[in-house]
Amino acid sequence: MKVLVTGASGNVGYHVVNQLLKLGEEVTAAGPDTQKIQKIFGNKVSIVELDFTKPETFDNALYEVDRIFLMRPPHLGSPDDIYPFIEKAKNFNIKLISFLSLMGIEKNTIPPHFKIEKFIEKSGIPYAHIRPGFFMQNLKGVHAIEIKEKDMIFIPAGNSKTSFIDAEDIGLAIATIMHNPLKHKNTAYTITGAQALDYYQIADILSNLTKRKITYAKPGLLKYRNYYIKKRGLNRSYVNVTVALYIMTRLGTAKGITNEFFKLTGKQPRTFEEFARNNIEAFSK
Ligand SMILES: NC(=O)c1ccc[n+]([C@@H]2O[C@H](COP(=O)([O-])OP(=O)(O)OC[C@H]3O[C@@H](n4cnc5c(N)ncnc54)[C@H](OP(=O)(O)O)[C@@H]3O)[C@@H](O)[C@H]2O)c1
Questions:
Q1: Is 197 helix (H, G, I), strand (E, B) or coil?
Q2: Contact 158, 151 (CB under 8 A)
Q3: Which of 86, 148, 231, 237 has the most CB atoms less than 10 A away?
Q4: Is the CB of residue 10 below 6 angstroms from any atom belonging to ligand 1?
Q5: How remote is the CA of residue 75 from the centroid of ligand 1, in Å?
């Protein structure tokens, strides 16, 4: 039987697929754009269309699958968007569903992940929630434009610290769990990097590596929201979820460090400096 990886073209899904393949698992890589997935993975995986807003795509995606990596696409701000797929998965003999949740979610009912976790638990499908800290990939993804073009980090995190983790490490932790579903039945893991940094420290690391002066702009929440919605044209629902997350971050919720990644994989998580060095082109002009 195969492992279904949703969001296979995304930050985490991509690494979940690769790590599962290394463990010798058969993978169904799923997402709304099968051509995109084909370009990324070629013939190494089975490829299916899966769109959480199109229930007609669910049966095919779940065919011959006994484990599921489930992620919530960032623009789907309501948990209701994900429920029909989980509901459908109940009809299949699923040994484990591993949902990409959020660090601290057990004490924070506002982000959609809280309700999605509860919905999965009530579904009766064995689960292993993955609650990672902020991804290092945010810096090279959504926030790279300001770094490249304006030498500026434009994130409303105040002076708070964040225990960033590399999506590749998250992928490894998830694949490890999926490979041994009985051991991880009905569990939740908070996985973080090994150090908590503020964005001044992130700016210093990027300045050293790029040999440019990169500064942390420390915008207010409203300024950030207006900029990303009006100037950058990003999805309103996505930006609103991130505003809620940065409110929590400012309260210190993103700085905790756990050793759960080490306990799962026997490896130390990558540092931000290593990540930035390996991805230097993302920050270069
Ligand atoms: N960023 C962080 O710091 C952080 C920290 C903790 C948790 N998280 C959570 O992680 C999740 C995001 O993971 P990610 O960064 O790996 O995602 P991502 O890179 O933004 O990728 C999104 C994936 O979802 C697919 N997708 C888009 N619309 C879809 C639909 N209607 N139905 C099914 N799939 C769809 C996309 O396919 P296409 O490529 O074809 O569009 C893509 O594969 C979010 O729930 C976020 O809250 C993020």
A1: strand
A2: no
A3: 86
A4: yes
A5: 8
Q: Quick check: CB of 112 below 6 Å from ligand 1?
A: no
Q: What is the dihedral of CA 8, 52, 136, 264, to 10 degrees?
A: -70
**DSSP state for residue 165 in the 8-state scheme:** B
For the chain, which domains are there?
Answer: 2-135+164-194+255-269 (3.40.50.720)
**Contact between residue 193 and residue 271 where contact means Cβ atoms under 8 Å apart:** yes
Residue from 221, 210, 205 nearest 283 by CA: 210
What is the residue-level pLDDT of the chain in tens, covering all 285 positions? 999 999 999 999 999 999 999 999 999 999 999 999 999 999 999 999 999 999 999 999 999 999 999 999 999 989 999 999 999 999 999 999 999 999 999 988 988 999 999 999 999 999 999 999 999 999 999 999 999 999 999 999 999 999 999 999 999 999 999 999 999 999 999 999 999 999 999 999 999 999 999 999 999 999 999 999 999 999 998 899 899 999 999 999 999 999 999 999 999 999 999 999 999 999 998
DSSP-derived 3-state class of residue 144:
helix
Q: Pocket of ligand 1, candidates 35, 71, 241: which has the most ligand atoms within 8 Å of its Cβ, to mutate?
A: 71
pTM value?
Answer: 0.96
| Pocket of ligand 1 contains residue 39 by CB under 6 Å | no
Direct distance between the N- and C-terminal alpha carbons of the chain, in angstroms, rounded to an integer:
45
Q: Quick one: 91 exposed, middle or buried, by C-beta within 10 A (0-12, 13-18, 19+)?
A: exposed
